[in-house]
Amino acid sequence: MEKDEFSDALGIGPDSDMGVHHREKNSFRGISTRRNLKFLVASAVNQDFLDEICELENLTELKLEWPVTANTIEGLARLKKLKKLRLDSPRNITDFTPLTRLPQLTHLDIENAKHLSDLRWIRPLKDRLVKLNLDGSINTAQRLESLDPLDGFTFEELWLVNTTVADKDLSPLITCRNLTKLRCAKSVSTFEGFMALADARPDIACDWFSPEHWPGRKWRR
User: Fold this and answer.
1) Structure pTM?
2) How many other C-beta atoms can be found within 10 angstroms of the C-beta atom of residue 48?
3) Nearest-5° angle of CA 202, CA 205, CA 207?
4) Disulfide engineering: 124 pairs with which of 65, 92, 100, 213, CB 3.0-4.6 Å?
5) 3-state class of 217 per DSSP?
């Protein structure tokens, strides 16, 4: 059998359904030929690398790890079978709307997105997502203006780790009827905000509903 010309650089076999690749210069060239890939972890993803990944139309899970330097994620809309997506530090992305054109997307994890303060773009995913992560990195908080666009979402888990919300308002989560787990930074809201959500939705598990995290504050429940 003739040796595949890309195998050594990619480290992903021609018939593999799983793969991992960290880009070094143009080492990613040929990854678009790996048409059987269903799960891919890629790092140091520039625009050319991402454009090749977007030809892998059998992908069901894609993790774009630090750093993502591509300028547009428009091509991701081609991945119609994609169910799980992670974007780590997409520093140049200003338009996230292509993600709303992924019909099977159920898990979305975005970390340290510099231009993600406004969540109004995410509304079309209201009835699709099961889990949503909008996290900051270890050293940089993810800054959001408001959670109001998440009103009525049907996800089961919401993660806002090292995240700040400008209006401190958790009330939009009251109408997220399937939400059972909220993992977030204390800076997301105030004591009063967490207590109001705890009173309205005692079925949600959240560390900040516990009085031990609020010494000296009166517990109303």
Assistant:
1) 0.95
2) 13
3) 110
4) 100
5) coil
